[in-house]
Design a protein that fits this description.
Layout (H helix, E strand, L loop, with lengths): L11 H11 L15 H20 L12 E5 L5 H19 L3 E4 L4 H9 L5 E4 L1 H11 L2 E6 L5 E6 L14 E4 L5 H11 L10 E4 L3 H9 L5 E5 H6 L2 H4 L2 E6 L7 E4 L5 H15 L2 H10 L4 E2 L3 H5 L2 H14 L1
Parallel strand pairs: 1-2, 1-3, 6-7, 6-8
Antiparallel strand pairs: 3-10, 4-10, 4-11, 5-8, 5-9
Helix pairs in contact: 1-3, 3-10, 3-11, 5-13
């Protein structure tokens, strides 16, 4: 796994250049702490041992976990560059409040991200609600907060297209960000009410991200595209003018923040407080406004349970590809 994280001392401009070069893939060249050679790690620890013993002898508490960064796993609904640009200020705030380095990780696709979540590779997790249900069931992740603003799944077509009813999509090709995306599952449910089934009545082509999906329509490669409202809001006015919303789903819960059970209760609550504190700052308010969020809200367990049907669909798809 490759890190999207900023190394200490790595200029922000260089990080953005790396993110741009990565496109929809993970950033290359920023290795995981796990890949540090054992010999160098052992040498460092032995060299640091006298200093640690001295601190203990002086009665000064030492944070043994402080040298190991917290891994902040972010759902790959955006490009690598967008993830870094949008979430680095939040990661910086977490570092400040938790007094521990925070590195940003994602994955090249939703399947890989879901699998790494199942394996518990992320300490702090930001993911879609149906994948949050799986994270809790499979790896014991504990929900902290969610974005308060509900999201909707959108199916868009070109602004000058002749489509006037969902049935007109029969036999057409629709771009999707990923088969596992909750907005895709929700829109497919809507289409099913009109007698349209994926793979039978229409074809889908995975594009990697929500923005990439809508660009397939704009460039004339597909007849329609599925994406989430937050990604639609991030599009420039010039791009939005080239498409029109054809189908809109009922409201869905926003992305959710969770922590892995290896973080103790006190640590999990510290993360929660840090997130709430960030939302109250000018930088946090700008972050919320940019993403189309109105703040944070608590996660109700019944709310997660409502996404069980979508989660089980994803679980079946993941099992078939393992």
């Amino acid at each position: 796994m490759r890190s999207l994280a900023r190394r200490r001392g790595l200029p922000r401009r260089l990080l953005h250049a790396l993110a741009h070069a990565a496109g929809n893939k993970l950033l290359a060249g920023l290795h995981s702490p796990r890949t540090i050679p054992l010999r160098r790690t052992l040498k460092f620890r032995l060299g640091a041992l006298p200093g640690i013993l001295l601190l203990l002898a002086m009665g000064i508490p030492t944070a043994f976990g402080a040298d190991k960064p917290l891994v902040f796993g972010i759902f790959p609904s955006l490009t690598a560059r967008q993830i870094v640009e949008i979430y680095r200020p939040l990661a910086d705030m977490l570092e400040k409040h938790l007094q521990r380095r925070v590195v940003i990780y994602s994955a090249r696709d939703f399947k890989t991200f879901a699998e790494r979540t199942r394996q518990g590779e992320y300490d702090i997790l930001l993911t879609a609600p149906h994948l949050a249900w799986l994270a809790r069931q499979d790896a014991g992740y504990r929900p902290l907060l969610k974005y308060a603003q509900p999201v909707r799944g959108l199916l868009v077509v070109k602004s000058d297209s002749p489509f006037d009813a969902p049935e007109a999509l029969r036999g057409r090709t629709i771009a999707i960000p990923d088969p596992l995306a909750v907005v895709v599952l929700a829109i497919q449910t809507e289409l099913a009410t009109h007698g349209l089934r994926p793979g039978t009545d229409y074809q889908t082509t995975a594009s990697g991200t929500h923005i990439n999906a809508v660009m397939q329509v704009i460039n004339g490669r597909t007849d329609a595209a599925m994406l989430g409202l937050p990604s639609y809001s991030l599009m420039t006015p010039e791009l939005r003018q080239q498409v029109r919303v054809f189908i809109e789903t009922p409201p869905l819960s926003g992305l959710m923040y969770l922590t892995h059970p290896r973080l103790r209760d006190a640590e999990a609550q510290a993360v929660r407080r840090a997130l709430l504190s960030f939302a109250a700052t000018p930088e946090g308010q700008a972050f919320m406004q940019h993403g189309g969020h109105i703040g944070f809200a608590t996660v109700d367990s019944r709310e997660l349970q409502a996404f069980r049907p979508y989660a089980l669909q994803v679980q079946d798809m993941l099992r078939m590809t393992r």
